[in-house]
Design a protein that fits this description.
328 residues, alpha+beta, Arc Repressor Mutant, subunit A, Alpha-Beta Plaits, five-stranded antiparallel sheet, four-stranded antiparallel sheet, 10 helices, 38% helix, extended
Length: 328
């Protein structure tokens, strides 16, 4: 039997002929039971595809009159993944495919069922593009992202539980403004009604977002944009590690590192890199791909991390004994 996803696509393709299908005939075409067919029809309806059902001995199914729907069947999480991934590509996450990604994103959103299209449009409309990148991003809850995005779009107050740096959990009531993907993380920029000031909240520390139904008049952000607000907060926030590294390369060769670190030229082929971070994996990764020799000035923990990585890479690349040389 075909997988659920491929079977649902085939079911939708048959219904798009707009002919009336007796239930047993449709089940036979798909090689499934009438009970499984009813579940698949319900799934199509949940995704926003209008299917009329006729009961009785000669009962069957047909797409609602006037429906002209393309064969795209995705669930909520898949829709969010499509929107986020294609939007990131359209904003330059992968060099050279920005324009094709934007065209693809537009086409995919157009052929989504109305319910999913509205949810994805909300996410696209309130996400602010940035130029800071990173090797990976923290895992997020797609449903939570949609709830937050819709509250931002509709100027609706939002409640959620938030875990601060010291692991204290508090309930927040905010006026959400924009979502900002920055480096490895996503942030919500919002006006905190309990603290009476603007704040940025990490989405990986935010749980159980709830729309309150209470609308608000948007306030003026104290910076040029939401991305600037988040970047300023990251720079001003005390970090666990203060990184200083001397790289044997000119500043012009290290332009990509300048997205997240301060670069100071020490000579035509020598640069001092400074950054603040809570984790050492990202600076270690970036130094590894910069293509130049370097010397770690601080912190000593970064040197320890690099030594641990070097040992692991060395062990992984060492020649392994062939099967013929192993003892019998």
């Amino acid at each position: 039997m075909a997988s659920t996803s491929s079977r649902t696509l085939r079911l939708l393709s048959l219904l798009q002929t707009h002919r009336y299908w007796p239930g047993q005939e449709l089940a036979d075409r798909l090689e499934i039971s009438p009970r499984t067919l009813r579940r698949d029809i319900d799934r199509l309806r949940e995704l926003g595809y209008p299917v009329d059902a006729h009961r009785g001995v000669d009962g069957g199914y047909q797409l609602a009159a006037g429906a002209a729907l393309p064969p795209l069947v995705v669930d909520d999480e898949e829709a969010v993944a499509l929107a986020v991934g294609m939007q990131a590509a359209a904003q330059g996450a992968v060099a050279g495919i920005e324009e094709p990604a934007l065209r693809a994103l537009t086409k995919v959103v157009q052929v989504m069922p109305p319910r999913l299209r509205k949810r994805v449009d909300a996410l696209r409309g309130v996400t602010v593009p940035t130029s800071w990148g990173g090797p990976r991003q923290d895992p997020l809850d797609p449903e939570a992202m949609i709830v937050i995005a819709q509250a931002c779009r509709d100027d609706e107050r939002l409640e959620f539980d938030y875990t601060a740096r010291g692991a204290e959990v508090s309930q927040r009531l905010v006026e959400p403004h924009r979502l900002v993907p920055l480096g490895r993380r996503w942030y919500l920029v919002a006006y905190d009604l309990h603290r009476h000031d603007w704040r940025s909240f990490r989405l990986d520390r935010l749980t159980a977002p709830r729309r309150t139904g209470a609308r608000f008049r948007p306030r003026e952000l104290p910076t040029a944009g939401a991305a600037d607000f988040v970047k300023r907060g990251i720079r001003d926030r005390p970090a666990t590690y203060q990184v200083e590294v001397v790289i044997e390369a000119g500043v012009e060769r290290l332009d990509q590192l300048g997205r997240w670190a301060a670069l100071e030229p020490l000579g035509p082929e020598r640069t001092l890199l400074r950054m603040q971070t809570d984790e050492l994996e990202w600076p270690a990764f970036s130094l590894g791909i910069c293509g130049a020799e370097f010397e770690v000035r601080s912190p000593p923990e970064l040197a320890d991390t690099l030594r641990e990585w070097a040992g692991r890479f060395s062990r992984s690349s060492a020649p392994r004994p062939s099967a013929s040389s192993e003892p019998r």
